[in-house]
Amino acid sequence: MAALPAKLGVVVTAPLVLLARAVDPPLRWWQRMAGQGGMAAVFLLPNLAIFGVFVLFPLALNFVYSTTAGTDILLQGRSFVGGAQYARLLECRDYLDPLTCREDTFWTAAANTLVFVVLQVTMMVVVSTITALILNREIRARGFFRAVFFFPVLLSPVVVGLIWRWILQRQGLLNLVMVSLGLEPEVWLNDRTYAFAATIGVSVWAHMGFYTLILLAGLQAIPKDLYEAAEMDGTRPARVFWRITLPLLGPNLAVVLVLALIRGVQIFDEVYVLTGGGPGTSTLYLTQYIYEVGFASVLRNPGLAAAASILMGLVLVVLTLCQLWLSRRGEAKGAK
Amino acid sequence: MTETKLTCVAAMALAGLGTAASAQDATELRMMWYSDGIEGEIMADLLERFEAEHPGIDVVLDNVAYQVTQEQLPIQLASGQGPDIARVASNLKSDSEHWLDLRPYLSDEETAYWEENFGARFDWMRPDGSDAIPGFLTQLTLTGGFANATLFEQAGVELPGPDATWDDWIEASRAVAEDQGLPAAFAIDRSGHRISGPNASFGADYIAEDGSPAPVDAATLEFAGRLVSWAEDGTMLPDTWVSAAGTTYRDARESFVNAQVPFWYSGSWQVAFLSESIGDAFDWVAVGSPCGPEGCSGLAGGAGLVAVKYTDHPEEVATLMDWLAGEEIVREFSKRTLFLPAHAGIVEAGGLDFASEDPLVPPALDRFVEASGETLPLADALPAWEWAGIYYGALVARISQVMADEISMEQARELMDRDIADAVENASQ
Amino acid sequence: MRRVVSFLARRRGHGGRWHWTDAVTWLWLVGGTVLMFGPALWLVASSFKGPAQLAEFPPTLLPYEQIVVQVEGHDAPLPLYEVAGPHGTTRQLAEIRRIGTNAQMVDPTDPDTRLNVDIAARTPIREIGLALDNYVQPLVANDFLRFLWNSVFVTVMATLITLLTNSMAAFALSKYRFRGRDAVMLLIVATLMVPLSVILVPLYSVVNATGLLDSLWGVILPTVATPTGVFLLRQYMLTIPDELLEAARMDHASEWQIYWRIVLPLAAPALAVLAIFSVVWRWNDFLWPLIVLSRRETYTLQVGLNTYAGELNVQWHYILAMTVVTMIPVVLVFVFLQRFITTGIAGAGIK
Description:
The complex is a heterotrimer.
Chain A: H1 3-65, E1 68-69, E2 79-80, H2 84-90, H3 104-136, H4 142-150, H5 157-168, H6 173-180, H7 192-221, H8 224-232, H9 237-265, H10 269-274, H11 286-296, H12 302-335
Antiparallel strand pairs in A: 1-2
Helix pairs in contact in A: 2-12, 3-7, 3-9, 4-7, 7-9, 9-12, 11-12
Chain B: H1 3-17, E1 27-34, H2 39-53, E2 57-64, H3 66-78, E3 85-88, H4 108-118, E4 135-148, H5 149-155, H6 166-180, E5 186-188, H7 192-201, H8 218-232, H9 239-242, H10 253-257, E6 263-267, H11 271-278, E7 284-288, E8 300-307, H12 314-324, H13 327-337, H14 344-349, H15 361-371, H16 377-381, H17 388-403, H18 409-427
Parallel strand pairs in B: 1-2, 1-3, 5-6
Antiparallel strand pairs in B: 3-8, 4-6, 4-7, 4-8
Helix pairs in contact in B: 2-13, 5-6, 7-8, 8-17, 17-18
Chain C: H1 2-9, H2 20-47, H3 51-54, E1 64-66, E2 68-69, E3 78-84, E4 90-99, E5 102-107, E6 110-118, E7 122-124, E8 126-128, H4 133-141, H5 144-175, H6 181-190, H7 200-209, H8 216-224, H9 227-237, H10 242-250, H11 255-266, H12 268-284, H13 287-292, H14 301-306, H15 316-349
Helix pairs in contact in C: 2-15, 4-15, 5-8, 5-9, 5-12, 10-11, 12-15
């Protein structure tokens, strides 16, 4: 059984092996000419070239877009307006009430995203920590259950949205359950609170498996003798959890927290399929706002969308720096 | 197998990947086509026949989702790309600068034929003041209502007559819904286009004297207010309107087909699909547009087949377009798709026997033809009005917010005016 | 039965003593299994229902089909109904046609007598049946094999290029000291999480300018330079001891050979994780291919699926069925490689 994948692997990688052999002589020559530093450039070049053309350059271009107005997609058809789009986005009479803002939908989306991220990340961390703790117990078929919780991570966001829409809609599975329990069926996605809760629940459902694995790895790295010592001392289990497990899980928890935070801010496909942002604008999040304003809506305004995405990008960069800082701190702690 | 051998095989396989699309001698034309029903299959049929008659031209039909023609196509066009021919619905006017003028490629005789039979609606798909021949409508549509006659009968409620008002219809449907234990009495598609016919019936006017968008008027708010109150008291099925934010289109057909609402406001293009999906489950009738104080107006529209000016083969495109616009072809297309033709000659001749065995279809289509005589001036002007899409978008986005209880109608009015002004300003920059 | 119970109740660890945490564990695992698998199974069950049955409320768990019978004197088979008669009796009748609230029915054993029945008094007789047409129709009519091929091409190519370029970059970033290394690293980390939907417009103009529209490479290239991949591989390569590299250099191995013959094999666990993720991501990609590909011979499966959404008409029965089809490879990856994935991420991904 193992021979087949191995052979298949050879077939797939064979052209690459050929390629690798072919490029060695010229690279040797280059190594003699340019030294080790030159080789670093060679290794970096392919990735950086693609990265530059398809990620960095569009990012820079996005900034240029944010200073222009018009409905044209191509830059040559657009007129320069300086910071007008930013001014429009940031103009508010009362920053606590989105409706007083010039771009009320942007602020509604931002507020929704904020509440969503806080609740979703909290729930994600709690649920995946509990799951990881349970999977770390000595249970039967641990591999199977680990796989069970990981399964939705592999589904495409569109499929995730579709599956849950199929459950929560009027003729859905949940209403079947309600009716068979003798309860009144409900149109879940028509209700602001339920719809909002559904977006949180569904995104936790879809991604918790990934975070559970990270936490599980952390739990398994905690030395067993610590627990044995605690048991010898007769320490209460709750105290063991707060004093040993949680602190030692700290670095992994930090990674989970930041990753979940960043991905929470970016939530889009699942929600777009599930609720489309409704009812009203109650599940309209920033990424959907940007997509619609920049691309999809008849009221299209790519410049405004670009400005909004740059504001959002700033927040993301801050979050990423937080991650770096936290993981550095984690590393430093681990080294101690 | 040795490693080297495998390497060779794999390398050959890899080399083969690039040659999938082989070169062809015939001129290839691409047609981007979205389908609501079976029209894609029928167009494929027609194109096959065209190719047999014109061996030098090869037409590839790219079936796409409607969303693609609405979201991706405009971007392709803006960057000077796109198919040679496209079927477009809501962006016919707003993207009209990208359509090819077929006039230089048509003979005088052909030009006269186009002018005579399609001329009335060229303004829907060309910039104001232009005399271009950009394409033709594959179908003419008119918004209107459908009623589930079986549900009405079971509930013992008379179907309201031809002069019945919106309130009459809603009252009757409500009685049916209550009697039959339905989730709601009425549904309407989530679309600004759909509510604009009724708005016209209530006396709304979107267009200012100079052709720019007028502020949202009291008549528009009148009908919008009714929609909101119907949504709030459960008369209107809320699912369609609240199931999205922004300007997203949603239809309410499912709920009508499943007999969850006895009355549904949509349009003539649904006839073929209703016939197919309802089958024998219940009797349904087209009822035209209910009346408001000013009239009983629906709103005309249509999907247009237009040539794109970035094509490399304008001659061949014109040949194909002229062939497809031929009277016999249009007649056959309409017969088989159950679409209302937009060809003046065919309409005048009348008596198009639609290819349907369903006895419910002909009266439904006849009702729409009859209702097309009742449209009000605003409804006639909207399809050729530059800012219609923007106006519709603002209406949908804000009215659904009122339905979701996020803003009041008064706030919605201000926000709609601002959205429209912003979009107009941005478009002219 | 008793053995099953005792099997389930049996537990390892602290002898035979039950603790409340055991109950919680048990509940969590069983509930979790239902919650994680249930929705996907519901999707699969729904994909076998015909359009009419999909719309039914309350829905049934399993797909059903109406039973039809051949009745003498009628060409087409007629649907069979159970009709309630007086005094609580029922009989099976076939329906000829329905007029208003009345149905014209016939007893299959007595084809000559027509009966008028109120439609409220009849219920369709159904049996479990699969609406295979949902699957057959699109697979036959809609070039699905072509779409499948395109999806496979995109997935394989993108994954190979991702692995190659990302591992090269990760090698340089982890094993060389050069000026600007930290800057490059920071750049990569900073863009770690830029969502595609945010740079859609500029990215589109770039792809347009490079002439990659309507080409599978236009889908592949923008996705392969994933910062995530570089980051993950670099973190793993940092754990490969430098002494190995030095020893190879002593033996006059070129830098390229060091990368190819030493570092890559040693980084295999991390490469495997990245490969699996890349396959899943590229297979599932939707928004970007939808924008880039507008010619049917270039459609991927996910884009082809979307053609069932018309302006006025979403053909749910086809969409559900084709969604199940697109899920199959992912499920296969899952079934065969799950142990590898789950231990791989835990072991290699996050250090």
